[in-house]
Amino acid sequence: MTKNGVGREIPSYIEGIGQIKPYESPFSVIPEGNKAGAKLKRPLPHKNKLIDSIEEAVIKTGLKDGMTISFHHHFRNGDYIVNMVMDAIAKLGIKDLRIAPSSLGTCHGPLIDHIKNGVITRIESSGIREPLGTAISEGILPNPVVLRSHGGRARAIESGEVKIDVAFLGVPACDDYGNANGFSGRSACGSLGYAMVDAKYADQVVLITDNLVSYPCLPASINQTQVDYVVKVDEVGDPKGIVSGAVRNTNNPKDLLIAENAVKAIVASGYFKEGFSYQTGAAGSSLAVTGFLREKMIEQNIKGSFGLGGITSQLVQLLDEGLMEGLFDTQCFDLVAAESLGKNPKHFEVDAGFYANGHNSGCLVNNLDILMLGALEIDTDFNVNVISKSDGYISQAVGGHQDTAAGAKLAVILAPLVRSRNPIIVDKVTTVCTPGETIDVVVTDYGIAVNPLRQDLIDNFKTAGLKTYTINELKDIAEKLTGKPDKIEFDEKIVGIVQYRDGSVIDVIRKVK
After folding, report:
1. What CA–CA distance (Å, rounded) separates 323 from 294?
2. Could you tell me which PANTHER family the record lists for this protein (predicted)?
3. Fold agreement between 31-242 and 253-492
4. CB contact at 8 A, 505 and 10
5. pLDDT at 201 over 90
6. Residue 113: CB atoms within 10 Å
């Protein structure tokens, strides 16, 4: 066992994974070698790529036992593709597959049966939610799950660490030769930023759509040079679970208080100035921050350079009003964002490598100034857990958390001090996902704490008259409200590893007793 850069004991070898490189620091790994690539091919002129069924597509790709397949999660909890494809594969008797989706949601609970029957033996993803996460935490999977950030997944695919044999990608609009986009049709999801990486690097690509359009389907996020087969199905997903009409601002007083505190911190930080860049999520307090920040931008006549990440109607509003010069979009969180992507050239679709892979010539997060992030737990070293609940069960996703925190000048965690009667600030987080040295400020409904590594921010906040606490003071307040939480008991069996964005292991996840 080796103690890594965040103080976690990491074995040198894990059965089912192999040799382990422990995490050291955010930029310690220097990559070597060249990018991987897909197979060379020679399709004949005027050959039709349209086939009759998913089962036929599986057969034509030559999928065999032990191979790796991938999916994307842009359909979120409305996705039908993963379950449809896995059912077809199971009927054909194929076993021992590694699946490498960009993320898995609650709608993917049926994968539990495919693990039990031996069709799936490995999973590598950014996130795994209940009930599948619960089953994995209890040891159902033969090999430990590998969890990566969005940028870390792109890095693993682009470097060849993860070699995808067949990518099965659901698309909202597609022609019969494989040009596709995500912002047209009844199942519109917006950007296909995660799927675009799979389409570039998989040996074979199958597009699955419920909206076959005449050739050519333009603009094309995925193009015909990357696609081998096209399948038309009745439905690729439930539109109600894919995107909402618009992600609405919160009226929750706690969320609003957190947002107000966050905006005070942003304005006092020194980074809120002409040309600043900005990323936030789609949670209640994050959306409220964007709304309050818009008011400050108008009041102080400040315009930003770009908004980044998962795009919402709130960020689209900043673009439409001329308060942002552009938006870079890896995924859309509502229909307003999806529609904007289809019509505004300054709303620009990017793949996950462009967004957050730290091993290229410069991803977008390297230009990020101000960042809002969430957390399930934060510890007194500012390490953040976004994967496992307070009971130790896998239930959420790493997402772009590690990537954006490493790149941003000001990385702010937004979280209530207490959630479901559990303190959010603890001595040691259950699972380290993002290292504390990349987190600058923690904003709660009870106050603000600044990482001691950022004396500049401490000085700026003091000058602005902004009251702050130490992280230990906030932890003490939380424990007075809830009591000290009981320690979770784990088995020795490792059920998962969390990679840092550079491929090193920042933590392991053990089976819950």
Report:
1. 8
2. CITRATE LYASE ALPHA CHAIN
3. yes
4. yes
5. yes
6. 13
Written as six digits, the tokens of 321 are: 């009003």
CB–CB of 330/309 below 8 Å? yes
Burial class for 15, CB neighbours closer than 10 Å (0-12, 13-18, 19+): exposed
The mean pLDDT of 295-322, rounded to a whole number, is: 96
Q: What is the pLDDT of residue 246?
A: 63
Q: How far is CA 314 from the centre of its chain?
A: 20
Cα distance between residue 319 and residue 159, in whole Å: 34
pTM: 0.96
- Cα end-to-end span (Å), the chain: 22
Asked whether the predicted pLDDT for residue 245 surpasses 90, the reply is: no
230 DSSP assignment: E
Superfamily of 31-242 according to CATH = Glutaconate Coenzyme A-transferase (3.40.1080.10)
CATH 3.30.1020.10 fits 253-492, yes or no: no
H-type helices in 363-470, by residue range?
401-407, 455-463
Token pair recorded at residue 83: 């379950």
Q: How far apart are CA 446 and CA 261, in angstroms?
A: 9
454 contacts 440 by C-beta, under 8 angstroms: yes
**Residue whose structure tokens are 């999916």:** 71
Which residues are bridge partners to 180 per DSSP?
174, 222
Domain ranges of the chain: 31-242, 253-492
Give every CB contact of residue 434 below 8 A, 6+ residues apart in sequence: 373, 383, 384, 386, 401, 402, 405
Weakest mean pLDDT among 238-247, 319-328, 350-359, 453-462: 238-247
Question: What is the C-alpha separation between 429 and 448, in angstroms, rounded?
Answer: 19
| Closest C-alpha among 434, 370, 440, 369 to residue 402 | 434
pLDDT band at 410, cuts 50/70/90? very high
Which residues, in sequence order, are CB contacts of 12 under 8 Å at separation 6+?
1, 2, 19, 20
